[in-house]
Amino acid sequence: MRDVPKQQIAPVYRRRIGDIIVTAVSDGTLTRTHEMMLGVGADEARGHLDAACRETFVLSVNCFVVHAAGRVALIETGSGSYLGPSAGHLITNLAAAGVTPDDIDAVLLTHMHPDHSAGLTDLASGQANYARAELVVHETEPRHWFDDAAMARGTEREKKLMFQQAREQTAPYRDRMRTFTAGEVFPGITAVPLPGHTPGHTGFLIESGEERLLIWGDVVHMPEVQVPRPDVSMVVDTDPEAAAATRRRAFDMAASERLLVTGMHLHFPGFAHVVREGDGYRLVPEAWVQAL
Ligand SMILES: [Zn+2]
User: Which of 36, 69, 251, 253 could bridge to 187 as Cys pair (CB 3.0-4.6 Å)?
Assistant: First the structure.
């Protein structure tokens, strides 16, 4: 008898954008319920899942390595040890992409939630996982998550997983943190503020030659629902109304400009176009090709 495979192999996907190579590397997946969404009851959620031939809501947790102008950026660090064993696999999976943590010149964060920033630091040792990297983030993110008054208003879960996590995970990077408001933050990468999900939530537009890719962070968590219904926000959004307005604006831009997008919670690797459909939108996943 031959042994059957017992676990998934490292999910890695490459895409060329002009002279820049973007490598999607998975941190794993999270399973969530409709209760994570605002204003979507069990029956409606079931209808969206049925339409997508799915039993549950599965969120990919995607990270992206960018090779540009002889330098290497990592966009997001995954979940580390904060969200259970189905996620937190980024560093293992980076190896399959031929990337070691010491290769990373800069870590760019879309925001400081635990599925994005909790892989910065090894909690047990307190050591930075990316020893050489500067930490690059919108100036409003540390300002919000390091604010004691804002933390005091949070639920216990928010205090631990968001405020405390952001503080302990960024601690070894304090003397090498670079904040921005907009503009080019790394060669070929421009920050696109997309506030609402968090106050400093930011997408990254990668541009080289005639080609562009928008990595839109957490504009979408549950594609089965939020793409056809962009008005649906999440309980974890700091400002749900602003998040919905940002989502409409991002979808409208992507559809009008035929812009290639991907995101942290689109099903891995997430590269897709957005097209208008009815009152909402539809994602058209990109076909995989052998040539890079
Ligand atoms: Zn997220």
Answer: 69
